[in-house]
Design brief:
Strand order of the largest sheet: 2-1-5-3-4
CATH architecture of the largest domain: 2-Layer Sandwich
Number of helices: 10
Distance between the termini: 54 Å
Oligomer: single chain
CATH topology of the largest domain: Alpha-Beta Plaits
Number of strands: 13
Shape: globular
Order of helices and strands: EEHEEEHHHHEEHEEHEHEEEHH
Helix content: 25-40%
Length: 304
């Protein structure tokens, strides 16, 4: 067996500050090492970069186009600018286009990114319908249509199982759920991208209902979803009722009791009720992944 050779370190410059990183690390790694807060949406530490959202782009001196920092490997001598006019303009447009076409109300940091880059999504028409409209449509209530918005959000919400809800009105097509369900994590391949261009969407095989698909309900797609398009039913119902309060929640790390693998789980508890279960992304065994028992087998705790 060939021994692993140590990686050499290279030096790059981030906004005028020299930083040394290991060969093979990305510009995002370099930015984080010097404390530069680079926005990301489609990036996940446990998945290979997909370069889908383009909100993490930076300017590399001498390069013709902006580079996605999440996937661009650092090279010795690189000079990178993370807050130039060109970078800010690109990030602002990304946030404007996303906010005007997708409901980002449950996307962490999205509102902060939009404010930081002075995004004005109203330039592209009315914003995507917020959650209350979708919840009212799902309940059968009348919602005054705004163009074809009502029809769009009515078909976007998929409620066909007892464990989680899919709200594709919040989907930014980052492909993280597809990768987590596919070869990078679960190898179930229950979901993939259907259609092309503006018709591209996340779908099961032949667009069948989720309970009839190959889905094993591991919930690893929920773990990596950055926008809340995939959400625990418990969280979805709390949000619909207006009782979801992350400030009141505690997160307790423990060991999954169902088998001997020893997966770490994080119990999110609000007012003495487990509202969802996650797994730490930096755990050597799980890498954020769980099975159906570890992810969803907590309902009995509240029903004793």
């Amino acid at each position: 067996m060939t021994p692993l050779l140590p990686k050499r370190m290279i030096e790059v410059e981030i906004d005028g500050t020299p930083v040394r990183v290991f060969e093979g690390q990305t510009l995002l790694d370099a930015c984080r090492k010097v404390g530069v807060d680079t926005p990301t949406l489609c990036y996940g530490d446990t998945l290979e970069p997909k370069n889908a959202c383009r909100v993490c782009v930076v300017e590399v001196e001498g390069a013709r186009v902006l580079a996605p920092s999440c996937s661009r490997k650092a090279e010795a001598g690189m000079k990178v600018r993370t807050d130039s006019d060109r970078v800010r303009h690109s990030r602002r447009m990304v946030m404007e286009l996303l906010t005007s076409s997708v409901d980002l109300s449950t996307t962490p940091d999205a509102a902060g990114y939009a404010e930081r880059y002075d995004a004005r999504p109203d330039r592209y028409g009315p914003a995507a319908a917020p959650n209350p409209d979708r919840d009212r449509l799902r309940a059968g209530h009348h919602v005054e249509p705004d163009g074809d918005t009502a029809a769009t959000v009515a078909s976007a919400l998929k409620d066909d199982n007892e464990l989680y809800v899919r709200d594709y009105g919040k989907c930014i097509l980052c492909y993280k759920c597809v990768d987590a369900c596919g070869s990078q994590h679960q190898n179930t391949f229950a979901i993939s991208i259907a259609g092309r261009g503006f018709d591209a969407r996340i779908s099961t095989e032949h667009a069948i209902e989720l309970p009839e698909s190959a889905c094993v309900y591991c919930g690893n797609c929920i773990q990596v979803c950055p926008t809340g398009a995939l959400m625990f039913r418990s969280e979805h119902e709390h949000r619909a009722a207006g009782t979801w309060d992350e400030a009141a929640q505690t997160v307790t790390k423990t060991i999954c009791p169902y088998c001997g693998v020893g997966c770490n789980v994080e119990l999110h508890v609000q007012h003495n009720e487990i509202v969802k279960v996650t797994s730490p992304a930096d755990h050597d065994v799980t890498r954020g992944n769980l099975c159906i028992k570890g992810r969803f087998g907590f309902q009995h705790v509240q029903r004793r």
